[in-house]
Design brief:
By secondary structure, this protein is of the alpha+beta class. The chain has eleven helices and 23 strands. The strands form eight sheets. The chain has a five-stranded antiparallel sheet, with no helix packed on it. Strands 5-6-7-8 form a four-stranded antiparallel sheet, covered by helices on one side. A three-stranded antiparallel sheet has the order 9-10-11.
């Protein structure tokens, strides 16, 4: 029996334990660190006539306190939380824009129609007429300002998407580099796992999933990364297929995601993805907000602007001004313009004119041409609402979509087969609403039958505040704005509730994961004491062995 060797094994085990415990203590606050522990086993025994005498202890490896199930749960919870938080941050800005009842569109509408009632009761009062124009200009300014804020949000989304895609690609490079380091390190330590590098890779995967939803699988010690929905590869082996932020072919002003595919001969091609194909993480939240919130609310705001302008203009023309002349348009409003696909082969443009007030809606449409017929599809549900030829020929070719969207469309040039256009009839309408009349005398407050001194037409104009002329005869202008406010309010409340619940889930999942993998300083202090005692005891064995050896030498002398 070799006491020196036995003692040395104990010293090595204690030293490894002290080093590992110290490492745990020093990394107690390191994000993504998993507690490590020394795995030891008996060094075996030596056969003697009196039985087997143990040879002490040996260090096998240092392993992580790691539970893959809990880790994956935490990754998924944090990815969903990041998506909800990104949505909440964005939708809250729109909610703040519309929810204030003291300033903005809501009081603007009320003040405008109140002033209209004043003109109805005092049609000859120049001050009342001037006040009406002032209130009208204030209202249109508020509507345009709301549009501008939403458009700024839209442009900000483009920038955020681009920046986040760059971060995603940076993480892919980081994970690829860690894959290589882990493979190299594993070979140097006789196959033992490089725990700290594994922690860093796991943390990188977790942070990547907070940017965009991903799935991972391990092959040959390397982590491969794919998008959670669709399964497009982002990192396969040692090859990175980066995401790209590109202008949409449907609308060059809209930044979308594209994934990379190999195209042979060392080349790649970018494939544009629909917004709903990206889920999870910040990118999923930004795209979900744009599709489900921003597009919808901007369309509804435009629907309000169109409804107000057309209904008011129509009634205003029924009256006469103070000079006895028929009323003219009170508001101006822009016309719908379809956005051509960037891959169209022709230069054909499609424009529209609002033709039916009751049928104007806040929907999006896609128009395509197959060489003979036009197909109009309501998005995002994909319902085809028209399939047939145009009436007439370009530049006077007409598609009558009056019953579907309250719009008549005109094609100005011959299209080619495969051409497509995107149409959101009310998307930009709020940008273009203005008050046309500048002279208070031109307000057509009177009706034609009663002469220019009465306020009967002004009463009818004031009644438009609650007249059910919009939304197929179900909504007034006040109702329509209430719809905008309700849409953003409901979405904000739902997303906030979901985000709060997700935060609580993340806390619970983190607690469960940390119970297994986190560093408990009290436990480490106890371990430190135990390893210290083991070290001292093993050192004492060497002292004893030396004494025995000296005694033996003395006996020989």
């Amino acid at each position: 029996m070799n006491l020196y060797k036995t003692a040395l094994g104990g010293l090595n085990a204690a030293q490894a334990g002290l080093a590992t415990t110290s490492h745990n203590i020093n990394n107690a606050t390191t994000v993504g660190y998993n507690r490590q522990r020394v795995m030891t086993s008996t060094a075996g025994a030596q056969a003697t006539s009196n039985g087997y005498i143990g040879r002490g202890v040996q260090v096998d490896t240092v392993e992580r306190s790691y539970d893959s199930f809990l880790y994956k749960q935490l990754v998924g919870a944090q990815g969903s939380g990041a998506q909800l938080q990104a949505q909440l941050d964005q939708v809250s800005q729109v909610n703040n824009l519309f929810s204030d009842r003291t300033v903005g569109i809501a009081p603007g509408l009320t003040n405008f129609f109140t002033s209209m009632n004043t003109v109805a009761s005092k049609p000859a009062d120049p001050a009342a007429r001037a006040d009406l124009l002032g209130k009208a200009n204030s209202l249109t300014t508020q509507i345009r300002s709301a549009y501008t804020e939403m458009q700024n949000l839209r442009e900000g989304l483009n920038s955020q998407i681009t920046t986040t895609v760059e971060q995603v690609n940076s993480y892919l490079s980081r994970i690829d580099d860690l894959n290589s380091q882990i493979s190299l390190a594993s070979g140097k330590a006789g196959g033992s796992p490089p725990n700290d590098l594994l922690d860093q890779r796991d943390q990188a995967v977790m942070e990547l999933n907070q940017l965009v939803g991903i799935t991972t699988y391990e092959q040959g010690g390397k982590i491969n990364v794919s998008l959670a929905k669709g399964g497009q590869a982002l990192l396969s082996g040692t090859t990175i297929y980066p995401l790209q932020a590109v202008p949409s072919t449907k609308d060059a002003g809209r930044t979308v995601l594209a994934y990379t595919l190999p195209a042979g001969a060392g080349k790649t091609v970018a494939v544009e993805m629909p917004d709903n194909d990206v889920t999870g993480g910040k990118l999923g939240g930004l795209l979900q907000f744009r599709a489900s919130s921003l597009d919808v609310m901007q369309n509804q705001l435009g629907q309000l602007a169109v409804g107000l302008a057309l209904s008011f203009n129509e009634q205003h023309k029924q009256g006469v001004d103070q000079s006895g002349n028929p009323g003219t348009d009170f508001f101006s409003i822009g016309s719908p313009e379809a956005v051509p696909n960037t891959q169209n082969k022709s230069n054909a443009q499609i424009s529209g004119q609002f033709s039916n007030l009751a049928n104007i809606n806040a929907k999006d449409y896609e128009i395509s041409f197959d060489g003979a017929n036009y197909q109009v599809t309501r998005m995002p549900e994909g319902t085809q609402v028209y399939n047939g030829p145009a009436t007439g020929t370009p530049p006077n070719a007409v598609l009558n979509m009056d019953a579907e969207m309250g719009v008549t469309l005109t094609i100005d040039a011959p299209p080619q087969a495969g051409d497509k256009w995107s149409l959101s009839p009310t998307r930009n309408a709020a940008r273009d609403i203005n008050v046309v009349i500048t002279d208070p005398d031109k307000i057509a407050a009177a009706d034609a039958a009663g002469g220019d001194a009465n306020g009967k037409n002004a009463l009818k104009l004031a009644a438009l505040q609650n007249a059910k002329l919009l939304g197929h005869g179900t909504m007034s202008t006040t109702d329509m704005f209430a719809q905008v406010v309700n849409t953003v309010g409901v979405q904000t409340a739902q997303i906030k509730s979901a985000a709060t619940a997700q935060v609580n889930l993340i806390k619970q999942t983190t607690a469960a994961q940390q119970a297994v993998s986190g560093v408990n300083l009290n436990e480490e202090y106890v371990s430190l004491s135990l390893y210290q005692e083991q070290y001292q005891a093993s050192a004492r064995i060497i002292d004893v062995a030396s004494t025995v050896f000296d005694t033996l030498l003395g006996l020989r002398g």
